Amino acid sequence: MRAVILEHLYEWSKKPYQKFLKKNCAWNISVTELVHYPEHSLGFHLGAFLLKHRFEIQPKLENHDVFHVLTNTGISVPEEISMQYYLLGNGKKSLYLFTVIGIGTFLYPDCYQLFKKAYQKGKSAYRFHHLDFSKMLEQPLGKIQSAFLIQ
Q1: What is the C-alpha to C-alpha distance for residues 79 and 107, in angstroms, rounded to an integer?
Q2: Which of 78, 85, 95, 93 minimizes the C-alpha distance to 122?
Q3: For residue 40, what is the enclosing H or E element?
Q4: pTM for the model
Q5: Which domain of life is it from (predicted)?
Q6: b vs e for 18-44, b when ≥16 Cβ sit within 10 Å of the residue's Cβ?
Q7: Beta bridge partners of 41
Q8: Each residue's pLDDT tens digit in the chain (151 positions)?
């Protein structure tokens, strides 16, 4: 039931968030184009992630899926919340992040240790949340992760 509540909130808020709060431009790239990047690249791994989970690219929200790839975070609701904790530890601040953390912590108090661990990992990494990943799609995923100490 907890997951259903958060999924409904996400679906309800996604379109207004994309339209009114996200100021960046959409990448205008397809999943097919991503999987044609070199095999070890961020672009390839992003495409593989999207295919594996049968996701479409969400315009202006592409970084969210990049964060999944970089941090090797799954897509369950507790993992989604933990990724927001990771990003908070990395210095990211946004209305979406604070909303997910607030509601998620309230609904999943049993996952506190997971959230705390993710936050600590984010703090120990060099700041990467603000990067323009659309310009880094050809870079090797492992090189990006090691350069920013992303665990």
Answers
A1: 13
A2: 85
A3: none
A4: 0.90
A5: Bacteria
A6: eeeebeeeebebebeebbebeeebbbb
A7: 140
A8: 787 877 767 676 666 666 656 678 889 999 999 999 999 999 999 999 999 999 999 998 899 999 999 999 999 999 999 999 999 999 999 888 999 999 999 999 999 999 999 999 999 999 999 999 999 999 999 999 999 999 8
